[in-house]
């Protein structure tokens, strides 16, 4: 089974190593926008965007570790872990300890290629606001005693009334109460991240400058996070909140939100979940904010408004053991969400729909012809890891949307297959 997936992996990996100028759009927005770039105005009409329902829950991770890579994102390959053995090793070792690891560009460094001697600044953030900085993080640091001790840190008990957390500062570069917005602009991985993320970075920096907040709010860029369909995606520090479905129009509100994330902030509509909290804790936090009061013009088609208008269709699934299950599914949700809502077996969704795990693998047979779009390159890459992969049938449930047409396909005899694992 695993062997059958290998040719697909080999077919897609070389493409990811040699991106074909994916940065054209991205360069328009980051670091040095051209003189012809129109000044951002907050009255501009946003592009029509199909807002997707947000899961309001991220897969549980104890903490988030960030390596500051001295290459501007324009030089990042699509898979940083292939270019950076230090990132790959850290990620592999710490993921098993429940720590999420990612790379950011903090504005320092102008390298254009990865050094053989990787030495990066690294930081770890816990959900209670605790953080630690390692000025020289190397391959030797990964399994050092200091890191092992630090990773054993147990955060203070979760309090859902604390919508914000305080950060003490590190006495060096990071001042007390500094806030950071990490926007995914990883264009070689996903051009939508560079288009929307790059535009958002540009608008955020302009807004920070306009409000003279340079000492308090830092705008950084982060490697692929959040997934194509929710872009632009951003992580807020120190709260560790993931925000999605963002456009450049949200820049002013997002900055106000990070400075003072009150329960009635409009930006909770874009809250995807919080690193460091369990599913139950995230649900408790979500219950403290009231997004139904907070529909903005830029988010007129927010998940909340979609949910109230949601229509439903019947979908048919068949378990690996042959049991047929008919479920009622919300149009606009995805098949992973349908699986979770209806306790269907084998659909785990460990990465929360971020295209990082393939544990939402399922089968959509080609007959009758299913009304689902083609899998993206990113989905195909990840399907290479799916156990029991079937050419022409395997899909990732988190990437397939429920539509009226999919309901009609099931009514005409179509059945979605569930794998053994
Ligand atoms: S849930 Fe991880 S790829 Fe779909």
From TrEMBL:
Gene3D superfamilies with a match to the protein in the record: 3.10.20.30, Glutaredoxin
UniProt entry keywords in alphabetical sequence: 2Fe-2S, Iron, Iron-sulfur, Metal-binding
Domain of life: Eukaryota
Annotated GO MF terms: 2 iron, 2 sulfur cluster binding; electron transfer activity; metal ion binding
Annotated region (Disordered), positions in chain: 22-47
Cofactor(s) in the UniProt record: [2Fe-2S] cluster
Protein name: Uncharacterized protein
Source organism (scientific name): Kwoniella dejecticola CBS 10117
């Amino acid at each position: 089974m695993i062997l059958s997936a290998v040719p697909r992996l080999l077919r897609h990996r070389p493409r990811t190593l040699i991106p074909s100028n994916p940065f054209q759009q991205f360069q328009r927005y980051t670091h040095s926008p051209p003189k012809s770039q129109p000044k951002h105005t907050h009255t501009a009409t946003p592009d029509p965007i199909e807002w997707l329902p947000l899961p309001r829950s991220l897969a549980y991770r104890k903490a988030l570790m960030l390596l500051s890579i001295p290459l501007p994102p324009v030089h990042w390959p699509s898979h940083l872990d292939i270019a950076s053995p230090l990132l790959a090793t850290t990620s592999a070792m710490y993921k098993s300890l429940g720590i999420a690891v990612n790379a950011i560009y903090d504005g320092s460094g102008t390298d254009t290629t990865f050094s053989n001697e990787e030495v990066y600044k690294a930081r770890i953030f816990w959900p209670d606001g605790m953080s630690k900085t390692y000025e020289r993080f190397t391959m030797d640091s990964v399994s050092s005693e200091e890191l092992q001790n630090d990773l054993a840190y147990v955060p203070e008990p979760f309090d859902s009334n604390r919508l914000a957390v305080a950060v003490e500062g590190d006495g060096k570069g990071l001042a007390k109460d500094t806030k950071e917005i990490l926007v995914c602009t990883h264009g070689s991985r996903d051009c939508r991240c560079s288009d929307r993320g790059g535009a958002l970075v540009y608008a955020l920096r302009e807004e920070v400058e306009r409000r003279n907040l340079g000492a308090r709010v830092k705008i950084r860029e982060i490697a692929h996070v959040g997934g194509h369909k929710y872009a632009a995606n951003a992580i807020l520090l120190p709260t560790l909140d993931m925000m999605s479905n963002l456009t450049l129009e949200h820049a002013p509100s997002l900055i106000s939100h990070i400075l003072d994330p009150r329960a009635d902030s409009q930006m909770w509509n874009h809250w995807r979940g919080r690193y460091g909290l369990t599913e139950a804790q995230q649900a408790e936090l979500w219950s403290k904010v009231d997004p139904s009061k907070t529909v903005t013009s830029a988010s007129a088609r927010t998940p909340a408004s979609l949910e109230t208008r949601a229509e439903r269709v019947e979908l048919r699934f068949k378990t690996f053991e042959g049991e047929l299950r008919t479920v009622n599914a919300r149009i606009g949700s995805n098949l992973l969400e349908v699986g979770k809502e209806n306790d269907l077996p084998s659909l785990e969704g460990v990465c929360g729909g971020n295209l990082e795990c393939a544990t939402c693998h399922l089968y959509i047979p080609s007959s009758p012809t299913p009304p689902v779009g083609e899998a993206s390159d990113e989905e195909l890459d990840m399907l290479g890891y799916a156990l029991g992969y079937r050419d022409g049938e395997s899909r990732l449930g988190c990437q397939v949307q429920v539509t009226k047409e999919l309901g009609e396909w099931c009514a005409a005899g179509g059945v979605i297959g569930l794998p053994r694992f």
